[in-house]
UniProtKB/TrEMBL annotation:
Name of the protein in question: Phosphohydrolase
Entry-linked PROSITE patterns: HD
SUPFAM superfamilies found in the cross-reference section: HD-domain/PDEase-like
Source organism superkingdom: Bacteria
Length: 214
């Protein structure tokens, strides 16, 4: 008999077959590996960490008319169908429900060590070399300019600008990517984030320098 993690991998791969590049199976696989990696140090429940990482983007509300219940419910019914014990199912469901960037501003939201680990792993995939690639992929999809020297990136630090739909992709670094380092929950996550953060700062220096023809 296959173990629940293997079964979940098969299920998620199949479900995300046609997902867009930002949230495809490879995003899940990176988050899964990073979460397991962080958990080596943090010593949370490995099964909960693995299943939550694998199922965290199973039905993105953005592509489901804003429905935030679909993903958690789908995760729950799948895990029940492969006979994972109820306590684990409930924990995984809570993690998925409370993991998004938006929900993380809600101070009353649920938390657990496993939740913090998976959230760190998901955030880490938005920064560093991969994070840069994902941002420009998103910007290209939305037909945005890379950068506009008339708009000072620093002016895009506020949360309201997060909703600005025409901002150059470089602004996304200031409105989100450069803020993630200080939002890390775990020590292991923080350590990885520092390195990826510095890589983005170096990248931005180089970007502005090349913009001026250097
Ligand atoms: P999450 O994976 O946390 O749900 P999103 O769905 O908002 O994040 O974004 C998916 C990827 O697209 C992330 O790497 C994110 O940084 C990137 N992204 C989101 N919004 C923008 C934007 N306005 N400009 C550039 N990249 C973006
Ligand atoms: Ni994700």
């Amino acid at each position: 008999m296959q173990d629940p993690i293997q079964k979940t991998i098969t299920f998620v791969k199949q479900t995300l077959k046609n997902a867009e590049a930002g949230h495809d199976w490879f995003h899940i696989e990176r988050v899964f590996k990073t979460a397991i990696n962080i958990n080596q140090e943090e010593k949370g429940n490995n099964l909960v960490v693995a299943l939550a990482a694998l199922l965290h983007d199973i039905a993105d509300p953005k592509f489901n008319n804003g429905d935030e219940t679909l993903g958690p419910n789908l995760a729950q019914s799948f895990l029940q169908s492969i006979a994972v014990e109820e306590e684990t199912v409930n924990h995984v469901k809570m993690i998925i429900q409370h993991m998004s960037f938006k929900n993380s501003f809600d101070e009353n939201s649920f938390t657990s060590k496993e939740m913090q680990i998976v959230q760190d792993a998901d955030r880490l995939d938005a920064i560093g070399a991969i994070g840069i690639a994902r941002a420009f992929t998103y910007g290209g999809f939305k037909n945005r300019v890379l950068y506009d020297p008339a708009i000072k990136p620093e002016e895009h630090l506020s949360k309201e600008s997060y909703k600005n739909t025409t901002a150059p992709t470089i602004n996304h670094f200031y409105e989100k990517l450069l803020l993630l380092k200080d939002m890390m929950n775990t020590a292991a996550g923080k350590k990885i984030a520092e390195k990826r953060h510095q890589f983005m700062l170096d990248y931005l220096d180089q970007f502005y320098s090349e913009w001026e023809g250097n």
